[in-house]
Design goal:
about 0% strand, mainly alpha, about 50% helix, binds zinc ion, 2 helices, about 80 residues, elongated
Length: about 80
């Protein structure tokens, strides 16, 4: 497991999902575990916050699809013993 790239670690994926959920609900949070900003960087630059909820939702939905696809890949590879 130690050679698993960060972006394929379930803990990382879960953290990104949580961060995106907070952001889409209007709560930008900087991910201090992995040192990454939320989607529009408004956690560190509040003036950049996307005030259009429809745009946030569209971005969030696309991002969730990607995260869940990644999670599915990780879980299927674990089942096959490849990770
Ligand atoms: Zn940030």
């Amino acid at each position: 497991m130690s050679s698993t790239p960060t972006y394929l670690q379930l803990g990382y994926i879960d953290k990104k999902i949580e961060q995106s959920l907070l952001w889409v609900n209007g709560v930008p949070v900087h991910d201090s575990t992995y040192g990454e900003c939320c989607a529009d960087f408004s956690c560190c630059h509040p003036d950049l916050f996307e005030t259009d909820a429809d745009k946030r939702i569209a971005h969030h939905t696309k991002f969730m699809d990607e995260m869940f696809a990644r999670r599915k890949t990780v879980l299927s590879q674990q089942t096959l013993g490849r990770l």
